[in-house]
Design a protein that fits this description.
696 residues, five-stranded mixed β-sheet, alpha/beta, 25 strands
């Protein structure tokens, strides 16, 4: 057995012992895009009754309602309604059960987990307005906080700051925003949301990056030696760029040759400015015009001008990068460095490993004049899901919630990591996390350095970018994009930010004015939904169409709105020409608080004289049906039909129906199902598919 294999087995055993301890099994966690809506449940008392009553706090048992947009994430007793399996992995589930038990023993608290029935922003607002807050602890998905804060429905938490002053718990308490503490977090982040990643295999081929002994100098080596600076990174990229200048990029990449550094300038610049000690907007106010920010922005522009940084394509406005295109190109082997969305990392590492390539992570480099231990040198970490306390919750209950969160997450992370303090959790869990992401920490050449780098990033990482939460990041992104590409005559960033500071300060003053009052503010836009397809015969006079018959408009506060008052813009549709006009109709309506909701939808113009049957093509390999699967819920048009179109090529898959009268999903076997598609002129066609009902 090779030394490398022995090392890998030993490391995995250590990880297993530290993190799993007595926990066994692993339940599949469903995709958050799954349409199944969890029902509101009360946490099972299984975890809180197995311990002897001697350890239980005295007095009446108190209940805390913990609200969330996605129950499977926090309720250890939630089971997938289809599989019947727990949605948490077993280690996390047992840690959560232990945390609930600790809360029962120390605070005599039990938890009722509450699933929001509607959109987080709407439900929190309407429940407070009704004088009946939906929960005591409100979880808000990342990005919803600015809307909720603007509703003025959150309690300031300043008086509880001392509860979180200890480093063991201080990571949970966000900095002051507009002079007050409003938010907490439960997340222990191990990497930035857009970490700087590199393809070690591509680097190993560059001769100019080898030392005198022929050993490759990896970014992790430079970081651990304290040499990872702006100038070092630029020199590193120059050598890579020279080597791969004429190397054709793999198929599927945006750019024709392999790039030294291809990324999204918004994420790259954000990382650069925090590494330089800057920011956008923090607890002390505007930082977008600070020395560190201007230095960080200038560095990215310097790399762009040198041709060693390339944006991952631009949208129609010519200054907004294509969303996550750099991740696809890096995954395909088209670039050596990139800033990678954290949710994409595992897939990227797995794909690279299948090609025999190794992927690594390194902190963003620092300016040359900044010391390695300078506290201003930071890796950017934006907020994720947040928690807050709604107005209408009593002071005693709010304090109990704060105490509960300390006990719960203190116990949760200590149990999950098999450690005696939360501050040790990240270090103890680093190996498992790095392995889970797919970083090659077992590589004999650089694996130890990579693990040390990953651990160092994790231990030092803290939430420090509140710009997205406050709504300032999009303003900043527009400024840097326009300044990089000279759009609308924009000058360089340092000049542009001085001329546009009012874009930030006006928004800040507006929010401060709202929070200074006791008024609850409706800032949720109405929801517009299509009730039927906008399909019309060619030659139709649009002025004769009652568009309001095709939509419903509803507001969280005002209820059903009169759809006839909406604006219907169909100017891009040629009603005389057959075809499909994507986003051909825009519908706009406002509620009583002047919040404007909009919807874009396609318009179909069909030939009413068409007499030919449509064409249906089934998928070559369609899925089997599970025993006892709900036949009425099967997605026939997507799971079994490749395409369905009328004679003019207009997609009619939405008009598909299935005759399932002969299908018996309770009994394994082969069954015939007739699928019919009708076009908008009234012609139809059908196909017969043989489907298999199979036991697991």
């Amino acid at each position: 057995m090779s030394k490398r294999i022995l090392k890998r087995i030993t490391s995995l055993l250590v990880i297993f012992c530290v993190l799993v301890t007595s926990f066994t099994g692993c339940a599949k966690k469903p995709d958050k895009n799954d349409e199944t809506t969890p029902t509101a449940v009360t946490a099972s008392t299984t975890a809180t009754t197995e311990t002897a009553e001697a350890g239980t706090a005295s007095g009446e048992t108190k209940t805390i309602r913990w609200g969330t947009h996605w129950l499977p994430d926090i309720d250890p007793n939630y089971k997938d309604p289809t599989t019947g399996e727990y949605t948490m992995d077993e280690a996390s589930r047992q840690a959560s059960m232990a945390a609930l038990q600790a809360a029962k023993e120390q605070l005599n608290v039990e938890v009722q987990f509450v699933q929001y029935a509607t959109d987080t922003r709407s439900e929190l607002l309407t429940s407070v307005l009704a004088g009946n807050p939906v929960c005591d602890i409100a979880v808000m998905w990342g990005g919803s906080e600015i809307t909720v804060l603007g509703q003025n429905i959150l309690q300031p938490l300043d008086q509880y700051a001392d509860l979180f002053s200890d480093p063991e718990y201080s990571w949970m308490f966000y900095d002051k925003i507009y002079g007050h503490n409003y938010f907490l977090t439960a997340e222990q982040n191990f990497i930035p949301r857009w970490p700087l990643m590199f393809n070690a295999t591509l680097i190993s081929k560059v001769d100019s990056l080898k030392d005198s002994n022929g050993k490759t100098i990896y970014p992790t080596s430079l970081y651990n030696e304290g040499k990872w600076t702006f100038s070092t990174f630029k020199d590193y990229l120059n050598k890579i760029s020279a080597y791969y200048a004429n190397t054709k990029a793999p198929e599927g990449c945006l750019l024709s040759t392999v790039q030294a550094y291809e990324s999204d300038h918004r994420m790259a610049t954000l990382s650069s400015i925090f590494a330089a000690g800057g920011g956008i907007y923090g607890s002390d106010g505007l930082e977008a015009d600070s020395e560190g920010t201007i230095k960080g922005v200038a560095y990215i522009k310097e790399l762009m001008d040198a041709g060693i940084y390339k944006d991952c394509g631009l949208s129609d406005d010519e200054y907004t990068p294509r969303w996550c295109q750099q991740a696809t190109d890096f995954q395909n082997g088209g670039s050596v460095f990139t800033d990678m969305p954290d949710w994409w990392i595992s897939g990227v590492c797995s794909t690279a490993a299948d090609r025999g390539e190794s992927i690594g992570i390194v902190p963003w480099p620092r300016p040359d004049d900044m010391a390695t231990d300078d506290p201003a040198y930071q890796q950017v970490l934006s907020t994720g899901n947040s928690m807050g306390i709604l107005k209408g919750i009593s002071e005693d209950q709010a304090k109990l919630c704060m105490e509960f969160l300390k006990v719960y997450y203190g116990t949760y992370y200590k149990t999950l990591g098999g450690v005696d303090s939360v501050t040790k959790y990240k270090e103890a869990a680093a190996s498992a996390k790095a392995t889970g992401y797919g970083y090659d920490i077992f590589n004999e050449e650089f694996g130890d350095e990579l693990l040390q780098t990953f651990t160092d990033i994790s231990v030092k990482l803290k939430v420090n970018n509140y710009a997205g939460l406050l709504g300032y990041q999009s303003i900043w992104e527009n400024l840097i994009g326009k300044s990089f590409y000279g759009i609308d005559g924009s000058p360089s960033y340092d000049v542009a930010i001085k001329a546009n500071k009012d874009l930030f300060t006006k928004q800040a003053k507006d929010m401060e004015a709202i929070l200074a009052t006791d008024d609850i503010r409706d800032n949720v836009a109405p929801d517009i939904k299509k009730t039927k397809t906008f399909a019309f015969p060619a030659g139709t006079d649009p002025s004769t169409i009652t568009f309001s018959d095709y939509v419903t408009c509803e507001d969280a506060v005002d209820g059903i709105l009169d759809a006839t008052t909406a604006k219907y813009d169909y100017s891009s549709v040629d009603f005389a020409k057959t075809g499909t006009y994507d986003e051909g109709l825009k519908v706009i309506i406002s509620d009583k608080s002047e919040n404007e909701g909009s919807m874009k939808t396609k318009v179909i113009i069909f030939n009413p004289d068409n007499k030919k049957a449509p064409v249906i093509i089934t998928k070559k390999d369609y899925r089997t049906i599970k025993v006892d699967e709900d036949a009425s819920a099967i997605n026939w048009k997507d799971d079994f039909i490749e395409s369905a179109a009328d004679v003019d090529g207009i997609d009619i898959k939405e008009n598909i129906t299935a005759d399932i009268s002969s299908l018996d999903t309770t009994t394994p076997g082969e069954y015939e199902v007739i699928i019919t598609a009708a076009d908008f002129a009234g012609n139809s066609a059908e196909v017969k598919v043989k489907v298999t009902v199979a036991a697991e």
